[in-house]
Amino acid sequence: MDREYKLIIFDLGNTIIRFDHNISAAKLAKRFSLDQKKIYDLFFDSELTRAFDAGEISPKKFYQGATGVLGIDLPYSDFVSIWSDVFWEDVESCNLVRRLAPKYKLCLMSNVNELHFKHIKKRFNIINAFDYTVLSYLVKAMKPDKRIYEYASEISGTDFSGMLYIDDRKDLVKEASRYGIESVRFEGAKALEDWFLKNKIL
User: Fold this and answer.
1) pTM of the entire predicted model
2) Domain that holds residue 122
């Protein structure tokens, strides 16, 4: 191991907690006889969703925007339930996190919105294993914006050279590396465990 890591940063979605927006899209498509792909595209990658993840609009504004675009009449509580119930735990990844927790300071960093994170925190106790959480909707910056990594540095007292960053997205790993952060692409818990063992982290 070439570096002494003082902070290990994990991405959340599809690294620690898996998700699929098709789950919520399918429920709404069936309920309102709508095109599932249209709903999926709105939920997964749209200006509205990006604004919500970046903390630029409130949950109620997102609800109003999404139901307005789709042209549906749906109670807010029903919308929140359908929108949020798209996650499940990656058991092997979570076990890795728990093995690291006694030895390292851990940070959870995610491009995530308020409703999703509240749901995740309530449902999955793995969140409690992290010393720090850096969330786009609170920081008002989204990966790979350098500001989100600078925030992690500030709250943890760790400079970039002391960080190890793990994310499933190749583009985000590449950008974090450009900032001088040691970055590893998540390609499954077994591959990550092997990397940890090879580098004497576990």
Assistant:
1) 0.95
2) 7-18+88-198
